[in-house]
Amino acid sequence: xxxxxxxxxxxxxxxxxxxxxxxxxxxxxxxxxxxxxxxxxxxxxxxxxxxxxxxxxxxxxxxxxxxxxxxxxxxxxxxxxxxxxxxxxxxxxxxxxxxxxxxxxxxxxxxxxxxxxxxxxxxxxxxxxxxxxxxxxxxxx
Amino acid sequence: xxxxxxxxxxxxxxxxxxxxxxxxxxxxxxxxxxxxxxxxxxxxxxxxxxxxxxxxxxxxxxxxxxxxxxxxxxxxxxxxxxxxxxxxxxxxxxxxxxxxxxxxxxxxxxxxxxxxxxxxxxxxxxxxxxxxxxxxxxxxxxxxxxxxxxxxxxxxxxxxxxxxxxxxxxxxxxxxxxxxxxxxxxxxxxxxxxxxxxxxxxxxxxxxxxxxxxxxxxxxxxxxxxxxxxxxxxxxxxxxxxxxxxxxxxxxxxxxxxxxxxxxxxxxxxxxxxxxxxxxxxxxxxxxxxxxxxxxxxxxxxxxxxxxxxxxxxxxxxxxxxxxxxxxxxxxxxxxxxxxxxxxxxxxxxxxxxxxxxxxxxxxxxxxxxxxxxxxxxxxxxxxx
Lengths: 141, 385
Known about the structure:
The structure holds two protein chains of two kinds.
Chain A: E1 2-6, E2 9-12, H1 14-27, E3 30-35, E4 40-42, E5 60-63, E6 66-75, E7 88-95, E8 102-106, E9 119-124, E10 135-140
Antiparallel strand pairs in A: 3-4, 3-5, 6-7, 6-9, 7-8, 9-10
Chain B: H1 9-14, H2 16-19, E1 29-37, E2 42-49, E3 52-57, E4 67-72, H3 73-81, H4 86-91, E5 95-99, H5 101-111, H6 121-126, H7 128-131, E6 142-149, E7 154-161, E8 164-168, E9 177-182, H8 183-190, H9 196-201, E10 206-209, H10 211-217, E11 239-242, E12 245-249, H11 253-264, E13 268-272, E14 279-280, E15 296-300, E16 304-312, E17 329-336, E18 345-347, E19 362-367, E20 378-383
Parallel strand pairs in B: 1-4, 6-9
Antiparallel strand pairs in B: 1-2, 2-3, 4-5, 6-7, 7-8, 9-10, 13-14, 13-15, 16-17, 16-19, 17-18, 19-20
């Protein structure tokens, strides 16, 4: 028996998530939040510091659009919800100024040539979708 | 107390401590006198020195300060709130400054956060008649009692009937619901700063009477906006509606396959254990009690005897379509004719039979017109009379 299981979903980015995406979309900037107590910058932003529970919703910092790859993988299968056709590189990127990496696509380089620590820069989407894909991908500097 | 633009003069001075920005005044050493004339006015002396603030009530006119501001109450409040233009107030003579004007212009903005008008519970309740939305109150006949304690509190009854709203300044005995809380809690709930569920479960709000009415009543009134409140820029909030779908393929195998093939032909097949003789519905490869293979199939039913019925009122979504199920619906436990006594089988009951169904009754299956060998072939059971 075959079938499709539909999962109707209404996702709310939230106040902080919305501000993060809007900065990507309208200003082509990557924003994070900083916990002054722990001296840590979180990207994407979160409302509370995970270590000391300080409220971070007003501690925005602007980060660089460049960073380094801390780790990566190659996605080798296709499915409707995936952002690219296989094979494509999915990497963890720590932008300059941030203490946390976040995952994103890396283009413009063959998988065999990717090295952790290599410098990459953000490329923003021409057509925006009000999602993190308003940052389209990273490419080697 | 005299209010201008929804605010009293003394509110501005009473909130100076909490609005004070010490870091902006580390190199400052000044005194500012305020002589405010008119109803609600008064005299104050404010000392700002190296990051510290002192606000004193003065008896009579204040004179000996770095700068002294003289104004009438309405102008003072209006300019402070940004409702009246400061430049015009000066040139028209409604505000006069003796001494060093630059003190006021350069230092005050660094020294204090802007004044935001305080919303009083009484102002919110007393405006219910103006904020009432008659079109939302069709068929509504309720009395909501408010018992608010503390500054700005009081006791009121809001009567909503025949699409009109009347406010009474007493707490009636026959209210549909009475809500009791501190006045500030009421203001925070009303302005969306406190969530109703939290307030109730933390004991900050006590409800006597029909709590459902309490929740409903909010939709009968326009939101209260304080006079003089600055319009806050709406935040853009992003949300995403999507329906991801997961492809599913269920390979039944020969045993369950037999069950579904049977459904296509309006038949029920059970496995029979060669050892204990139990019939298993739906059929299984192995008897769980004897741990032996069951290779024999027997036809059972199609009618059944009800053993247990569960009526569900919780509206859960259908996982395949996302549509919310009609409630109530049932889990009907029954023993198909010919099946061993303990082998209940669960399915749905025709909703029209929910009121009549009792354990022990006989039920029969209702089949889909077009059957394809899936679980949708069997629609539900209904009372066999």
